[in-house]
Amino acid sequence: KVQGRLKLCTRSIMFEPQDVMQPILKFPFRDMDVSPCAEIFDEESNELYLSFDCNTVVEMKERNVDHPYTHRVLANSSVYSTKVIFSLVHSKIHDFLQAIAPLWSLSHKKSVLNKIDEECFLAPVLEPRHTDVFDASLLVDFRERPLYTKCKLVDRIVPLLKFPGAMMLTNLRFADPVESMSRDVASSRVYFQPAQINNIGDPVLNFEYAKVVGLHKRRHMLKQCGLEVLLDDRQSFFYSFRSMQDRDEIYATMLQVNQTLQQNCTREMLFKWQHRQVSNFEYLSFLNDQAGRTTNDLTQYPVFPWVIADYKTDRLDLTDPHTFRDLSKPVGALNADRLAYFQQRFHNMPSGMEAEGLPPPFLYGTHYSTPGYVLFYLVRMAPEYMLCLQNGKFDAPDRLFRSCLTNHADLKELIPAFYDTDSPHVCEWLQNTRNLDLGTTQTLARVGDVDLPPWADSAHDFVEKHREALECDYVSEHLHEWIDLIFGYKQQGAEALAANNLFYYLSYEGAVNLEMVTDPVDRCSFEAQIQEFGQTPKLLFQSPHPARSQVGMDVSLAPMDVATSPPVVPSVSTRLTSEEDLPEVVEQPPVASSSSSSSWGFKRPTLSSTFSGLTKNVSGFKASLRRRCMERSSWGWTFDYTTAAAMWDESLPHFLHSKYTRYKTTTTSTTDQRVDIVERSHA
């Protein structure tokens, strides 16, 4: 017998043994031909056991080590049996089987379900477990009183995961402000009550409001519904609310005690930076925080500049300008040949066809900060995130971060770990201290510690020299140019195009309001774009950022609300065939609801409006189709020369939103959600 806890998930049954030397076992429902049942194996005791036959089992975290998951086939095995038996100690088998039945049936439907259909089928099972009733027995101080009759439903956001629950505030509204500040603030608390879906860990998270040193409205999944709370012990908690109204209500209530939390001190920090009262690292950390970047959300991870260009010499000369990258250009524009390719592709893209479902033209289809890029650097320090992102596997060894001497042909900027000398994990992300099995490259080289440049004596020295480079005079003189690209006026619009800094439109804040998107297919595609391809930081400056030496120069700050910008599209190519021979047709725009439009003017007609348009304006559609066929030669879609086929490889995922592909059914893999039946058992 092996003692442990049995956990019921939406797609599987998990068994976590008490002995950490034993692997965690996952039994997928799809590999169970028959639904689990209750059986009696001892006629004398008549004890009921939970039993099922499973063809495969997934093993993970053996010896408490994060390693690629092992998929063991039990069917037709001479060593392992497909029969699995559990003895439930505290729960009734009848209740357990009753909870399993709909989940097993969902995994054995004849048709393959996409993410949208799966969520619809799971809603009756999961929604009753989301409660907005606060358990008053969780209060730490008997003097506390809840401020709301019902909790606010939220998700606690951590990297790659979200934990549903409810938030409650206590003792924050007082009749006597003097009394509230002198006596009751210490007992005022913020409570996060986890939903019954995930009942692992502490039953409730709470912290005193007196420990809050920062409170920031955030966006999450392109929605203005996030709130991040910073504590004096450097902890931070990121919550995503069901609506912006709920978030704003909690935000306003918390500000009643401490009004200083909402002050925008960007000008004050700029003054300190120019007078050398704060370092470049501290100023960039502040700008990332103001722009909504947080370590709790890998889609909005803090972004820092790649500053060093010399990774080959034995000595790093910080007085030589050739040691550094040109901070006035984005990474994609540093190589002239690659930039010429991006520019050619941009001008060959169809423009002015947003109403037909095509996105505005862009230079770069990938971003400089994505969840994949962050975990590319942090795979040794946080392997569990890579396993979660890669479905139980590490990335291919040849694609892992294994050397600082390799010039990667992408657009990545850096993460704070390259410069944070005060971090307790200053070396862990560069060294394979956990002895992870990261695989072997095609040259038969084992992937272990990161290969450092000759000028770095150790991993700690590597980070220290990066920090010295970030704080040196050359970078201080040119850092404002990089700030203009990432946080400033060259981030979007015509200035971004002129600076060769224009990214795919959905990466910008305000491009689409997911709260107004009612079409589930559109919503799913937008969320996939956000999760995979990254987001641009919030706009902070609307005019050129002053150099560090330009003390007293004024700068125009962007408004605190969402900043939007019209798309930048090239003029219609003169190579197009004249349209004078086409019949003159007055084309009516598709009847698209506000839920399918964005500030970019990019409208995606719904299914009903598409067929309506086809019925009413057949001639107009044919004329449009004829024009598109004539334009096709200038779109860059004919692959008749060397390496031309790769021209659109980077951009293909972004044409997911075209109305000619948006109705295809796709299957999206999601992480299992745990149902709250967690049972101590014997296997």
UniProtKB/TrEMBL annotation:
PROSITE patterns reported for this sequence: BEACH (PS50197), PH_BEACH (PS51783)
Domain of life: Eukaryota
Residue intervals passing through the bilayer: none
Domain BEACH residue range list: 258-548
Database matches in InterPro entries: BEACH_dom, BEACH_dom_sf, BEACH_Domain, FAN-like_PH, PH-BEACH_dom, PH-like_dom_sf
Lineage: Eukaryota, Sar, Stramenopiles, Oomycota, Saprolegniomycetes
Stretches assigned to the BEACH-type PH domain: 143-255
Protein's recorded name: BEACH domain-containing protein
Region annotated Disordered, chain positions: 568-601
Pfam family, one: PH_BEACH
